[in-house]
Design a protein that fits this description.
mainly alpha, 10 helices, 0% strand
Length: 175
């Protein structure tokens, strides 16, 4: 399993599936594959989580969800993964682009949070379903890069944050 195959899995899971059921559907689809491929999917997922471990994206999650702890940032990135490759990559390139995403706009209007803890365990769930065993602990590693020190400030400081994420700040009345 490589990134391309993982993203195809997510796109297939998204087809005809409610937004809050994509992770479960992806786990079902993945469970039909060989155990080694399922285990490899966990490394791909963790690589994508490490790739998305960025201060600007954390700030966007903070604005969107009205705050964002360490775990909350993991769950937000889980939600982001279930949105598909195009949304994921656009958010990494420009987190403020999330202001145009329909689910983000709905969250702003409805006051609800965007997160998906289940997305973090797609491969775990699939492996257990396929084999009846837990995913081997040695099938993945994760190493987060250091966060950009330019984004090391209190995200409640709207004077600092609003100019950096102007569309999200406006959408969530965060200015």
């Amino acid at each position: 399993m490589d990134k391309q195959m993982f993203w195809q899995l997510i796109e297939t899971a998204r087809t005809g599936t409610a937004a809050d059921e994509v992770a479960g559907r992806a786990a079902e689809l993945l469970a039909a594959r060989p155990a080694a491929e399922i285990a490899a999917a966990q490394q791909v997922l963790w690589d994508l989580l490490a790739e998305s471990y960025r201060g600007p994206l954390w700030a966007a999650a903070y604005v969107i969800n009205g705050g964002c702890s360490d775990d909350g940032f993991d769950y937000f990135r889980g939600w982001l993964l279930t949105q598909g490759r195009a949304v994921f990559e656009a958010a990494l390139a420009d987190p403020d682009s999330l202001a145009a995403h329909p689910a983000v706009r709905e969250a702003a209007a409805g006051g609800h949070e965007l997160w998906d803890e289940e997305a973090l365990s797609i491969a775990w769930t699939a492996y257990e379903s396929a084999t009846g065993r837990e995913l081997p602990a040695d099938s993945f590693t994760i190493s987060y890069p250091p966060l950009d020190p330019a984004w090391d400030f209190d995200f409640d400081d709207t004077a600092e944050l609003a100019p950096r994420l102007p569309r999200l700040s406006t959408l969530f009345d965060y200015a």
